[in-house]
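In response to reviewer comment 3 from the previous cycle, which asked for concrete evidence that the modeling workflow produces usable outputs, we include below a single protein chain processed end to end. The sequence was submitted unchanged, and the resulting structure tokens are shown without manual editing.
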Amino acid sequence: MSLKISSGCRVRPGRTITAPGPVTDTERTDWWNHVTGLPEPRVVIMQDIDSDPGAGAFLSEVHVSILQAMGCAGAVTNGAARDIPAIEKTGFQVFAGRLTFSRAYIRIVEFGTPVKVGGLTIQPGELIHGDRHGNGLPFVLFLSHLAMATLIACILTAVFVYLVEGGVTITPRGPRVSRVASAHLMILGGLFFVLMAWSCRLSMYDLLYSPRGTVFGAGYTDIAATLPVLKLLLVLCLLTALAMIFGGLQNRWKPALLSFGALILVWIVGGSIYPEIIQRFIVAPNELDKERPYIARSIEFTRKAYALDRFDEREFSATENYRWPIIAKTTPPCATCACGITIR
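The workflow returned the following structure tokens.
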């Protein structure tokens, strides 16, 4: 169900709300009847249309209890939520644009109309799918890239300062680095490889969105080739980080160079060459057999995501003339999706 709301105080009392009939915003409970008239499972999609969405929270322990009593499984809003520990205990699913400690006098503006949350326009009755990893992974990847870019900027700045101050000098025999500059730069390099290890770990989760196989998601090559290589790279990145930090403190470069060379070799061979060999010479000649378990899992969890596993399969004779009223009485309703609301 779609719902538009407002939590601000800019709406004059007694303002008429767009709805199936004129209703003032002083008492607005008619949308409850709309929600309970929809097939289950129900998801309420709420768009806060204030200039500053989430000035006050609509989703709280009390309102979540009300939504659960109406048979709702979850709620999505660009506004705010509060009472998170209490909501978690109920098992009710919530996606909110922000958290707040404040509540507000919420005005229901209209319901049963298209709403826009997170840049996505949602029509009443559409299927809604979201999960913790699907929403969270891009942001964590962004943090990883931001940390990497910041550390690289720090390393380049440190090298420039040491060149200016004399910590690093260029001689006919090559660059000469002072003990202090060497230790500093090696430790920064060690931190860089710690971030590289973190990036390898995040890449393992990213395999869930791999387009390489027959179906979208991790396939045979991803699990049999890419995942083991990423695990090996993670270990080598951590070993290289330790070698560089140890080398910076002890003024020894050889362990760091050896581990770095091994890391580059595995990265080149295991990152592209080995998975391509597996895909071309092992998977491609017998793709259906190799990808069968991954296709089966994809179908299984797609059915669960859209609640298709709750349907009963029934056979109807092809010789009888069934009309829709008869079929409707003998088959369960389709699992539905979203309900919508606009608040102000």
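The two ends are 17 Å apart (CA to CA). We consider this sufficient to address the reviewer's concern, and the full set will be provided in the supplementary archive.
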